[in-house]
Here is the input.
Amino acid sequence: MTSDAGAGSSAVRLDDVRMRFGDVEALAGLTLDIARGKATVLLGPNGAGKTTAIRLMLGLGKPTSGSVQVFGADPQAPAARRRVGVMMQVAKVPENLKVIEHIDTFRAYYPNPLPRAELVELAGLAGLAGYERRFFGRLSGGEQQRVLFALAMAGNPDLLFLDEPTVGMDVDTRRAFWKQVRRLKDEGRTILLTTHYLEEADALADRIVVLDHGRIIADGSPSEIKKKVSGHRITCRTRLALAEIRALAGVTLALHDDDLTLIDTDHLEAVLRAMLTRDETLSDLAIKGAALEDAFVAITNAGKSEESH
Amino acid sequence: MSLFPSGSFPAILLAETRSEVRKSLRMPAYLVPTLVLPAIIYAVFGLMLNNGRIGGMAAPAYMLASYGTLGIVGASLFGMGVSVAVERGQGWLTLKAATPMPPLAYFGGKVLMCMALGIASTALLSIMGVLFGDVRLDAGQWAMLFVTLAAGSAPFCALGCAIGYLAGPNSAAGITNLLYLPLSVCSGLWVPVEGLPKIMQHIAPWLPPYHLSRLALHAIGMPIPLNNHAWFLAGYTALFAWLASLAFKRQSRGSWG
Here is the structure.
């Protein structure tokens, strides 16, 4: 929201960041520049380094090498932290505090907190009578997520980290949440989000960065990314041999799962036409648009799977 | 509410303390070792069964000092150790660590809560002692007793903190119990030191609760020398705080995935 001179136009900068945990290299030289006022989505399979990257940006650890900056400062500096809000996966929040008590405690951490009423409204708690007086432990999973969102917004942040924010929310709540996030972006805030839902990335992102094995393997707008990896998964019962299916143009993966055959392809119609022509007994056909993340897992695992089948 | 500007250290410390006190008061598992247990055993051993004198003091006054100490030890060990371990294990502490809240405010809030609950425990025992045990102290002695016990929570808060960082969320309560009972029994909090077996009388002077109870007894006018009790407690505080800070640094260096 504020544009301080000298700090440049990026909200977050990672420069050749490496992070090792023993023998595991969680980040292998990550360089990333998150522009202000944009929504950026980090995607990648589990273990890709998303969580590690976010933790470093939050100042919850120091990289093995390389530098991390938030608004031009060390992410551990209070000046940086006062401008950052975070919603992350928390196994458990103290349950014997009331919603309003949690909110007031977090507001006290910041010099210019959002008004209590605005936070209650932001979290979608306003319409429900007596809500803010309820104990946290009495809320449903989705409601708890919304309170965590209110806590993330308590300090009126310029930069908002949302780590898997809609886990546990039902469809309606998720859509309402997206609307909130878009509104926050329109106010000029920078959003950095991780998610497992392709639909969510698609709905919110100006830019998608895909990580795998601690490296960026794709980076672009949602439409650019989808062109690269979009595909479908065909599930069916067929007599065709795997080798024959793999020989079809556009098949990225084919393997057996019990007596079913799974095929990932980016040429759905052509592959289907070919298979139906060659095997008239083909049955139990199902087609599913591959989630972006599934597609990446499939691509990175393709080599291994072929060996074992 | 707006006593201090939002985001300033005192405002954050106040907010943390307030929420710690609220959490504790709503948690029966915590109120038992801090308030209920000392009150019950004081009623039984200090007021009902004991009309004699211990070390030249009326038993109800003597035991007010020892069970007051017991309340402080319980409030501090369980208040720090268990809650730090549990909140660490749940990821809640990680979320708070990402906010501008200074770690000192988090621990400070818990320490103030432990002191407040320990003082409440002593106050409860004092009322019982005055009403049913004919305990009579002058104003200076009352003040000294409360100040001594409040300040005496320091080594136990530090120890609790170390446990909170060294133990897992599921084992912290067990480990604290394992320490709490032998520590308090061997220090002569349950049965006066004078009545303990010889071997325990030799162990007691090495244990921090013993030193705190001697200071508390001195505060209420028992004619015993001050010796180095305060120095012992200061030394233990430094030792436990050092242990806790080692454990804290080990975690905050980022050994998490």
